[in-house]
Amino acid sequence: MYKKIYLIVDELASSETFDELLNYIKTQYKIVPDIHSHMDMFEEGDENELYLLYLDDDEIKIFFKNHLQSKLNIGILPNDKAALAMKNYGISKDLFEAVDDALNIECRSEIDLLICNELIAFNSVVIGDMHGMNRLNLNESSRWQKVKYFFNNLKNIKFKSYSLSTSKEHTIKTVASGITILEHTIQDEKLALKDSLSIHDGKLNAFILAPTSLISYLWYLLSIFFYQKVSIKALPRSLGYIKTANLTISSSEPIEYMLDGALLSAQEVELNTMRDTMKVHLGRSLIDNVKVENNQVESKDIINLNALPHGEMNKFLIDKKLPLFKKASEDDFKELFLNLRSSAKFTYVFLILMILSTLLATTGLFANSAPVIIGAMILAPLMAPIISLSMGVVRAENLLISQSIRTLSIGIVMALFFSAIFTFIIPLERITPEMQGRLNPNILDLMVAILSGIAGAYANSKEEVAKSLAGVAIAVALVPPLSVTGIGIGLGSFDVIYGSFLLFITNLIGITLSAALTFIVLGYSPVTTAKKGIYYTSVLLTIITIPLIFSFADMIEKNKYMSDLESVKSIILHEEKIELNIYDVKLNNDVLVVDLQSISEKPLTHEEYVKIKQSIEKKLQRRIVLEVTPMIIVR
After folding, report:
1. Cα–Cα distance between 524 and 327 in angstroms, integer?
2. Which residues sit opposite 184 in a β-bridge?
């Protein structure tokens, strides 16, 4: 318990509540306070003395600054002109409750102070516009106001170049729309920040807003205006974060900034945190924070700026509008472009792998062996020049396009030639289920191609996921359809040639278009450059889609018939049960062909087959052609 109280007061000494305050202290604590001005200076503090500040925010800052090294025991009393100090230290709005907290030793804590250009900051320092994050009362706005703020921010973002130097002499050059610096926060529903920032760690916290695309900026705005919370553990990509003891921010132009709401300007903003420099009685709502944090060890610096712009992107954001998708850096593009240019060139390694994968796939198709066909998919080198072609399309690189097309053409011709020769030599002509499965492509196959193209482009652009290309190759299966086309040529079957080559062309165009669009999204080409190539590829895809739609409609109709026939398991003929296994339903020129197996103990007559046919026609409500494979059981 304190034995002496210094009541620091100036203008508020004439307020109506001042006498009530004095009487409360005298009555409850049997102490008569000494009255002093905030400009009075005091020596080193005594553990038995309390300095009770009944001042406005500016006067409190002056008192703090005059006694930074004095280790005084300080309590803060609420009033209308001390809103920042009250909020910063959790001071109760009730005057007498705040007095009780100021005389409660459990509420006392050594706190950090944020100094900005030699001025004390209670709340925050804001440079530029944080587009929502610096509106701490945003959650009190109506839904209409939030929508209005949202769209105003969406179209008004501007960038300025900054150099940021930390206490560890780490310097970062970037551009940003705004920077907010906080020393600490308390958990509050009105705050845009979900985390509580410590008042005892000797660090300041800087949040840098620098979206590199309209998509990432839009996501940030949605988080702020509607979800209303961001977390340090999962920051939007538009936000960078620095936790350090000292931070210097400079720019080629004067920096305008807001310190606790006051507009100031300087060529350089120097911020530092004075650790445990004041002994302040916090509000009772923060007692738990005091107990947890009082013995906190100083934490390490944190610099999380990986998503912020750098290099040529800085100039791009200052001079031009924010792009829809993030623009890849020149270093990223050079490395990827060199790899893709190498993949586009024809080599003997490509030729040998193409021939081997074709022969392996053709063998697997005749053997009806899925594992052998999968091996051929992994071995096939076709995916690489297709992805290179996609980059050529979006960058309008004629050399890359011509090299990719040349390599692909040679690979396709080699695949058709060797699979046709293999078919002509081998004494087999049966169309296996593995071949049959590649004769009727539909919209689902196009979807596989599109998703594979996205995966292929992304895997090529990200070195850490490049190993996933084998999985992409298996998913899209480029060589097996070509091998089936070669088998069709060897057998002289137009239906086999048409169906399988349509599947290959679907894969080729689907991958090219989706990979090209993925490269645009990843920022490897502006939309204006890619427009022409995307247009022509889209036209080709539209043409290819027409037969796929019809094929998909046939598939839907076939599935409907198969569903209707699921209940057809057997039929009774002449008091004998005949089991029926429906194998397939085919639509050949509007003729419905039902392929089934009949299981009986004696051969069936033609009339009995007709009755089976009539029974199925009654079920389907249409005429059919019946293909029957009989099985006789001898007991």
Report:
1. 6
2. none
β 4-9/34-36 pair status: parallel
- Cross-strand partners of 115: 120, 272
The Cα–Cα gap between 614 and 21 comes to 103
Find out whether 527 and 520 touch, Cβ atoms under 8 Å: yes
Separation between Cα atoms, residue 512 and residue 388, nearest integer Å: 9
129 touches 107 (CB < 8 A): no
H helices within 76-191, ranges in order? Answer: 83-88, 95-102, 143-155
CB 185 within 8 A of CB 197: yes
Q: What is the pLDDT at residue 192?
A: 64
H/E segment holding residue 375: helix 370-379
Q: Is the pLDDT of residue 221 over 50?
A: yes
Task: Pull the structure tokens for residue 417.
Answer: 């030639």
Sequence-ordered alpha helix ranges (H) in 226-345:
287-293, 312-319, 330-344
SS3 of 223-237: the string is HHHHHCCEECCECCC
Q: In what order do the strands lie in the sheet with 625-632?
A: 570-573, 576-588, 591-600, 625-632
- DSSP state, 215? H
Task: State how far Cα 260 lies from the chain centre.
Answer: 34
pLDDT in tens, 347-364: 999 999 999 999 999 999
Buried/exposed code over 384-397 (b: 16+ C-beta within 10 A; e: otherwise): bbbbbbbbbbbbeb
Q: Concatenate the DSSP letters of all residues of 465-515 into one string.
A: GGGGHHHHHHHH--HHHHHHHHHHHHHT-HHHHHHHHHHHHHHHHHHHHHH
Question: Could you tell me if 124 and 87 are in contact, meaning their C-beta atoms sit under 8 angstroms apart?
Answer: no
**The residue type at 284:** R
Which residues make beta-bridge pairs with 272? 115, 246
pLDDT of residue 467: 47
- Taking a C-beta distance cutoff of 8 angstroms, is the pair 247, 80 a contact? no
Q: 277 falls in which pLDDT band (50, 70, 90)?
A: confident
pLDDT over 90 (residue 370): no
Q: How far apart, in whole angstroms, are the C-alpha atoms of residue 383 and residue 408?
A: 9
Residue 364 DSSP symbol: H
Task: Give Cβ neighbours of residue 231 (< 8 Å, ≥ 6 apart).
Answer: 193, 194, 195
- Section 597-614 average pLDDT: 85
3-state secondary structure string across 390-401? HHHHHHCCHHHH
- For residue 616, which of 596, 630, 632 has the smallest C-alpha distance? 596
Task: Check: CB of residue 114 under 8 Å from CB of residue 61.
Answer: no
Whether the Cβ atoms of residue 114 and residue 204 lie closer than 8 Å to each other: yes
Q: Retrieve residue 572's tokens.
A: 């009774």
Question: 136: pLDDT confidence band, cut at 50, 70 and 90?
Answer: very low
Whole-number pLDDT of residue 143: 61
- Comparing 63-72, 285-294, 586-595, the range with the smallest average pLDDT is 285-294
Q: Which of 49-63, 175-189, 377-391, 427-441 has the lowest mean pLDDT?
A: 175-189
Identify the weakest region by mean pLDDT among 46-55, 146-155, 325-334, 386-395.
146-155
**Beta carbons of 408 and 386 less than 8 angstroms apart:** yes
Give phi and psi for 45, each to the nearest 5. Answer: -70, 155
Q: Residue 88: CA atoms inside 13 Å, Cβ hemisphere, count?
A: 25
